[in-house]
C-alpha cells in the first residue's frame, strides 16, 4: 500500500533553525509527528553556505497537517502574508496557544488573534465560535462582534460573546 501524499504541503523556510523550530512546535502541539530528514551534502556549502551534515529539510505533521521545514539561509524571511489558523474550542485553548506561541515572539503589532512566534511565523489563534457570530444573519450582531474583534490582540471569547448578545 502506497503512503497517502498530501496534495499541498506548506514549506517553511528557516535560516538555520528548522530542526529547532520543529522541536519547538512539537513541544506546543499535542498531535505532532516528526518524519524524514534530509541533510546538506558538501555542495550545500557552495549553494547555501550550509556545512555538510546540516539539516536541509524535516517533514512533520501537526494534527494531521503535513509541513516541511527547511534550512535555506537568510535569503527569505517570514511575514504576515501567510499565517496558520489554530481553531480553538475554548478560551483556555486560546490562552494556551497564545501564551506558548508569543513566548519569545511578538504580539504587539498584531490584532484579531494574530501573533508571530519566536521564528517569525505568523499564527491566528481563533475560537471556533467566532465564525458563527460573524456569519449571523443579523448584521447588527455581526457588526458588533467585528467592532469588538478589531479592538483585540488576543481574542477573548467572553467579550466577543457580550458584543454578539448586545
Automatic annotation (TrEMBL):
InterPro entries: 3_dmu_93_MTrfase, Glyas_Bleomycin-R_OHBP_Dase, PhnB-like. Residues 6-126 form the PhnB-like domain. It comes from the Bacteria. Gene3D superfamilies: 2,3-Dihydroxybiphenyl 1,2-Dioxygenase, domain 1. Pfam families: 3-dmu-9_3-mt (PF06983). This is VOC family protein. It comes from Planococcus chinensis. The lineage of its organism: Bacteria, Bacillati, Bacillota, Bacilli, Bacillales.
